[in-house]
Here is the input.
Amino acid sequence: MAPSLRVITLLTSRVLQTPIGNLCQSFLLSYGVRVGIGILLRAFKLARRQSYSSILDLKQLVSEKDLIVREEACRIGLLFGGFTGSYHALRCLLRKLRNKETPVNSFLAGSIAGLSVLALDDSNRRRTLALYLLARVAQCAYNSAKSKNKFHLWGSYWRHGDSLLFALACAQVMYAFVMRPESLPKSYQEFIQKTGPVAAPVYKAVRDSCRGGPVDVASLSAYLSSRKKFNPVKLEEFPSIIPCSVIHPDTDSCLTHNANAASATFRKTFPLYFSLTFVPFVVLHLQKVYLSLMVSCFNFAFLCFHF
Here is the structure.
């Protein structure tokens, strides 16, 4: 059989049924996760306004004006669905053409399927996703080498070593945010600044002071004068350290400031991270959740019938 006819026969055979099914399943799951996160965040926003009755109003909860996730959900669905479907299709095709299954098939299929990232129209998001996946590739390679006793980092077997590594990573990120903000994406800077307890002029003053440069006294004074509970403090152009009265002018106690900051940050970030955790769990385990609810309802009905 000619090579071209062989390829056509493969494309029209049942070999691609599984990849097409994977594509549709991944698209629907990804689309459902994105839409679910948007709806839940919208519900949190309405609840924060103490408009609890509007949560039950579909016009306010899922209106096109306030919940603009349709295009983004489609793009995310095409990203993951396209990658899953094309990867399995190319792998099956290479296996049939080469009459063998090797890691080369998976590598080639994954490389070509990676072009599905073009479903995202924002180049910054594509770059962010690529860097995230690169870090995951390095993590997988390290875990594989460690499981085979070929290589591991010093201290990797310590108890709670992962917590120590996370703390060091957070310290590096915060150092970059305060001292080298240009090294972080602008959206990430804005997220930290918005959820953090310290104002931007204070961060700039800390950065200038640590570098030995002059502090912008005018902008710092303008910020402090806008605070309601600010007590006048003498500002220097070359201070040895930024005092606590400047970092948290609304309270005199550092302990109270830290407690208020932890509480405020929790209230700001809880809706986001709860949505990112809860919605994917429900969507990806929808069948198990449905079965457990059915069993619970059956048990409840059984108890009510007998007692």
Confidence is low (pLDDT under 50) at residues 300-307. The two ends are 73 Å apart (CA to CA). Residues 3-121 form one domain.
